[in-house]
Design goal:
Number of strands: 12
Shape: globular
Largest sheet: 7 strands, antiparallel
Structural class: alpha+beta
């Protein structure tokens, strides 16, 4: 069999170089199945090769040694062996060996978490394989690059590499490679949040894996499809695909695959609030990851377990697991999981009342989030997909052209043979008519030159006309663009007109400020203020306040809000107009005063506004809405609650955006309801928070 064949070769030959090559072949076969036996073969190969100075044999032995260390997660040892191998291949100018070592060094640095070094070696190998026009190796190297980009959370670059790899593998009919590329593309689309594309490519991968009989790959594709449906909150389909994957994984004893399925099932139980079950499955997955030495998966399990303990308000245990996840992420440079871990640590410290630690981790989270996502955009994703489809068609056309060229060559060959066969007879006829033919050709040439000259003049005239048409079209585009910009600028004036002037804001909130920086000419964010007492003649009293507190006239009670509408630019501006009008209607038309009641009615108004559309419109807004009642009596304050002075009463309700209160040098977050204004499947009444404010208290509301 395949494993024994090197043994037979070793026993049957007396030639040292053949023996060394056979030992290296045997070592390579045992790398995953039996690492100890592989190392025995490597040791013997190194001894024999060193005795006869067989550099090629020594280089291959070190290459195998590096791979044994790599699968044992001994990254530094692996990289050292690969480096020795590469240096030896360079001594004998063996290019194939040099770039095999480069590829493996790229894999080693990637698994170690040194992604910049990994990219350097993979790009070096890619350049070599492209010069050699080695299509299978180009596709494989692109796949390796894509994996590194995924670890770096550069998903657009990852998608581009995977699509190029798929294109090449389809062109060379590499069915196994095609199935792997389809699976990787599905995973990348899921990470980009494009679940529709993820489902499409997962189904293609499932079909390919079934045709190949690749059970391990089939289970992985089924599990990935489960994860995608999980992200879409379709738990029924997600569970179905996870269980299908686990049946196959148990059958073939794919422990790593089983751990991934356990993580998926645990995640669904967590989302459903079944925390003990979620912990059980996460812990099972963690143990498998530890046994396999899969440190990235181990970090993910630590993070997931921490989030469950946070749900259970066991912040101390959650902090321990978050810290373990952070440690591994920093060691391996796992940026995406590190970002989530920072966010979890910030929330955990905040819930424990350690606000300085919480602030530090929120800062780390924001900085890492910005560095990850600034280069990502849906537009780039579409361009990459289009580029892939176009290049694929070009390859098909090129292939057809090559076939046609071969056919034309064959026809020419047959014609030459026929001409040769009849050359004697043709020569006689040629001599007889040579003078006449020469005259005829000259006449024909003159006629052709005249026709060509006329055609050139005709084409020149057409080009001139086309240039003139293009000039007119360009002018029209410029005019249209100018009209559009004028319209948008006018829309800005309209939008600015609905914003309360600074004079009005200062009239009600003397010690206040507004930071308003729209991203585009018109914006989806807006702020709003209106006097409540002056509008409907109603004042609010704090619960528990004594009767001697009185509102400060018409300026004593007013509403103000910070609103964040869906989208930027023109779409966001349209939503801001709807939101502004809706808030005014809630106060003036429906006479509402409580922020929570106002948000409930605003949801109805927004849904009503979109109800006539045939499309499923999910646009809406996040909002922080407050009513503030300033209190006053003979001494300038009201006494309530154990004789502590109360200067004002604040009612707050939020959709997505919280309120932050600084009182007595302490930061308190008054949390908003986690639901938007607009269409939402699990709508609940908004919560109204009543807060008594004292002198020198500060409150802050804002959009994202």
């Amino acid at each position: 069999n395949k494993i024994d064949s090197p043994d037979n070769l070793i026993r049957s030959t007396q030639t040292d170089t053949i023996k060394i090559n056979a030992l290296n072949a045997k070592a390579n076969l045992w790398i995953k199945k039996n690492p100890d036996k592989s190392l025995e073969c490597i040791k013997l190969a190194l001894e024999l090769a060193s005795k006869i100075n067989y550099t090629y044999g020594i280089a291959n032995a070190y290459l195998n040694q590096g791979s044994v260390f790599l699968y044992d997660n001994k990254f530094d040892s692996a990289l050292s062996s690969y480096k020795k191998s590469k240096n030896l291949f360079e001594e004998i100018a063996d290019s194939a060996g040099i770039y095999s070592a480069s590829t493996l060094m790229g894999n080693g640095f990637g698994m170690k978490g040194d992604y910049n070094e990994a990219l350097k070696y993979h790009l070096d190998a890619l350049k070599y394989y492209e010069n050699q026009n080695n299509q299978p190796s180009i596709a494989s190297t692109l796949n390796n690059l894509a994996i590194v980009y995924t670890y770096m959370a550069l998903f657009q670059k990852s998608l581009e590499c995977h699509l190029r790899s798929l294109q090449i593998r389809e062109s060379i009919n590499d069915l196994k490679g095609v199935s792997s590329s389809l699976l990787n593309i599905a995973i990348t689309y899921d990470k980009l949040g494009n679940q529709e594309k993820a489902i499409e490519y997962n189904l293609k991968a499932i079909d390919a894996k079934e045709r190949l009989g690749d059970k391990k790959g089939l289970a992985q594709a089924l599990g990935n499809l489960g994860a995608t449906y999980d992200n879409l909150n379709n738990y029924e389909k997600a569970t179905d695909y996870y269980l299908k994957a686990m049946v196959i994984q148990e059958e073939i004893k794919d422990m790593n695959g089983m751990s991934n399925s356990l993580v998926g099932i645990a995640g669904m139980n967590e989302l459903r609030g079944k925390y003990p079950l979620a912990l059980k499955y996460y812990q099972q997955a963690l143990q498998i990851k530890k046994d396999l030495g899969e440190i990235d998966g181990e970090a993910e399990c630590y993070f997931n377990i921490a989030t469950v303990y946070e749900h259970l308000n066991n912040h101390k245990t959650a902090l321990e697991y978050f810290s373990m996840a952070e440690k591994i992420c920093l060691e391996t440079n796992s940026r995406l999981l590190l970002k989530l871990t920072y966010e979890g640590l910030a929330a955990c410290y905040n819930n424990m009342g350690k606000f300085e630690n919480a602030f530090n981790y929120i800062k780390k989270f924001s900085e890492l989030k910005d560095s990850i996502y600034t280069t990502e955009s849906g537009k780039q994703m579409a361009e990459i997909q289009t580029k892939y489809e176009t290049e694929k068609k070009e390859l098909q056309i090129e292939s057809l052209n090559k076939d046609n060229a071969l056919k034309e060559t064959e026809i020419k060959k047959q014609n030459i043979q026929k001409i040769g066969f009849a050359s004697g007879f043709a020569l006689t006829l040629l001599l007889a008519f040579v003078i006449f033919k020469g005259y005829s050709q000259k006449k024909k040439a003159n006629k052709l030159i005249t026709a060509q000259k006329n055609e050139v003049e005709k084409q020149k005239s057409l080009v001139d006309e086309k240039n003139k048409s293009l000039g007119v079209a360009y002018q029209k585009i410029e005019e249209k663009n100018h009209e559009i910009l004028d319209s948008i600028r006018y829309a800005k004036r309209i939008q600015e007109a609905i914003l309360p002037p600074q004079k009005l804001v200062k009239e009600y909130l003397e010690e206040s400020f507004i930071l308003y920086k729209p991203k585009d000419i018109v914006a989806g964010d807006f702020y709003w203020i209106t006097p409540l007492a002056a509008t409907i003649g109603i004042t609010l009293q704090p619960e528990g306040a004594k009767a001697d507190g009185q509102p400060m006239g018409d300026k004593g009670t007013f509403l103000f809000a910070a609103c964040d509408c869906t989208g930027h630019g023109v779409p966001g501006a349209f939503m801001s107009i709807l939101g502004h009008n809706g808030l005014n209607r809630c106060i003036k038309e429906f006479g509402l005063t409580q922020p929570a009641a106002i948000l409930d009615k605003l949801c109805e108004l927004i849904d009503e506004g979109f109800s006539k559309s045939e499309e499923d419109i999910k646009d809406g807004m996040d909002i922080a809405l407050c009513s503030l009642q300033l209190l006053n009596n003979e001494n300038g304050e009201v006494v309530a609650h154990e004789d502590k002075p109360v200067a004002a009463v604040l009612n707050f309700s939020g959709a997505g955006n919280s309120l932050y209160l600084i009182s007595e040098n302490k930061l308190v977050e008054v949390k908003a309801d986690k639901q938007p204004i607009g269409k939402y499947s699990s709508r609940k009444p908004f919560t109204n928070h009543v807060i008594e404010l004292r002198k020198n208290d500060s409150i802050y509301i804002f959009t994202d």
